[in-house]
């Protein structure tokens, strides 16, 4: 009995010391386990999802954002990092076995590849003889038939789709998410990336091209919208591994410029050139900062003048196609107005 109360007293003191530490560094209140290790709880980012049969990795949350420790410094200070796991279903924590299928790379644990039995809670413990701190994260290994797919011909992906917007007619480069993780840990040859779009029914010939691991879009067209999949293949500890990621590419309109040129013969009178949008001058449209105008003289010969006015529509939106853009000119002799009709540029069939 005496020993037990002693033990409890020691724990209370230790807890007080560590609570002070928590106040200094911020974060969730740590708890002290019976072994005297500071338990920082579970990483808040949600479970790491990996597709069964694909390569995956777990990064010790003590070193990830917001990081508490720096792996390089911890390593050079002689701290050791140990991994334990509590498999789903049976609640016993056990050391993660070293095997050909599970390997370590600095603060990461690699699943090469993941299998359904890897699902569970993983804890990494950083310690030396006088210090110990640990944190956990959850891993969920998804069978391919449980991954969300929008059509049956698409590859299964366990990780959330990244979205990117590309202005129409402009160029863009698509990078496969997390490719650098494979590149960082790949041995010998470089990681290989295979891109697909529309279930591989389209080839990357017209205006699109794969260069190294990246997919270049030279001219964005609306037919290039949709889901892209990249499959990364690499070799690690002698094993050929792969993982798949997805990108949702949307086309957006960018800037549209309309040029109006007015010719004013010399008649010794005042002159004017201006734009209206749906019958309103840009002053009247004040507050709609998407419209702006720049004027300049194009030519001036013995009193005859040619004046340019460029209407810029920033962040062009589909409804801007239906607006009425008029350029008007006026001098003492009269007034002229012309309407500009906008159409979507033709897409290759
Ligand atoms: C960790 O520390 C090393 C040297 O002490 C530094 O070069 C590195 O940038 C640090 N890493 C992070 C993620 O802060
Ligand atoms: C998962 O573990 C069970 C029991 O240890 C074993 O029978 C099964 O083959 C394992 N499944 C995989 C995919 O490794
Ligand atoms: C253990 O690590 C702590 C914190 O990094 C450090 O203050 C202490 O000196 C280390 N102890 C030994 C014996 O290396
Ligand atoms: C891709 O993004 C568009 C919006 O830009 C959205 O309507 C569509 O549902 C997304 N598709 C997928 C599969 O996420
Ligand atoms: C131009 O018009 C102004 C007044 O409108 C007049 O004073 C001036 O004499 C005119 N010049 C010529 C060259 O006609
Ligand atoms: C715009 O110009 C067209 C002629 O090109 C004209 O019929 C129309 O009335 C003009 N609209 C406005 C608001 O001035």
UniProtKB/TrEMBL annotation:
InterPro entries: Ig-like_dom, Ig-like_dom_sf, Ig-like_fold, Ig_sub, IL-1_rcpt_fam. Residues 1-27 form the signal peptide. Keywords: Disulfide bond, Glycoprotein, Immunoglobulin domain, Receptor, Signal. It comes from Liparis tanakae (Tanaka's snailfish). The keyword Oxidoreductase does not apply. This is Interleukin-1 receptor accessory protein. Residues 30-140, 155-248, 254-343 form the Ig-like domain. The keyword Amino-acid biosynthesis does not apply.
């Amino acid at each position: 009995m005496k020993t037990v109360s002693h033990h409890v007293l020691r724990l209370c003191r230790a807890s007080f010391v560590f609570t002070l530490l928590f106040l200094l560094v911020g974060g969730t209140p740590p708890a002290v386990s019976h072994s005297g290790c500071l338990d920082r709880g579970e990483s808040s980012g949600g479970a790491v999802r990996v597709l069964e049969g694909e390569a995956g990795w777990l990064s010790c949350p003590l070193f990830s954002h917001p990081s508490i420790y720096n792996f390089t410094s911890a390593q050079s200070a002689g701290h050791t990092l140990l991994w334990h796991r509590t498999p789903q279903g049976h609640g016993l924590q056990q050391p993660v076995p070293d095997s050909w299928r599970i390997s370590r790379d600095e603060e990461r644990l690699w699943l090469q590849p993941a299998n359904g039995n890897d699902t569970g809670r993983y804890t990494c413990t950083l310690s030396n003889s006088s210090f110990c701190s640990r944190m956990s994260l959850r891993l969920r290994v998804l069978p391919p038939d449980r991954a969300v797919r929008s059509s049956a011909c698409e590859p299964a992906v366990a990780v959330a789709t990244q979205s990117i917007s590309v202005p129409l007619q402009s160029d863009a480069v698509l990078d496969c998410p997390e490719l650098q993780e494979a590149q960082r840990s790949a041995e010998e040859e470089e990681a290989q990336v295979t891109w697909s779009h529309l279930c591989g029914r389209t080839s990357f010939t017209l205006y699109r091209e794969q260069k190294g691991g990246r997919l270049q879009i030279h001219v964005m067209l609306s037919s290039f919208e949709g889901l892209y999949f990249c499959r990364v293949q690499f070799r690690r500890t002698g094993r050929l591994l792969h993982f798949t990621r997805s990108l949702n590419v949307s086309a957006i309109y960018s800037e549209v410029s309309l040029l109006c040129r007015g010719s004013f013969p010399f008649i010794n009178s005042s002159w004017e050139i201006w734009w209206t949008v749906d019958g309103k001058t840009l002053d009247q449209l004040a507050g709609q900062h998407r419209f702006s105008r720049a004027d300049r003289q194009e030519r001036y010969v013995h009193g005859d003048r040619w004046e340019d006015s460029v209407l810029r529509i920033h962040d062009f939106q589909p409804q801007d196609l239906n607006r009425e853009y008029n350029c008007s000119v006026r001098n003492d002799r009269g007034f002229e107005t012309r309407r500009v009709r906008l159409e979507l540029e033709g897409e290759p069939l």
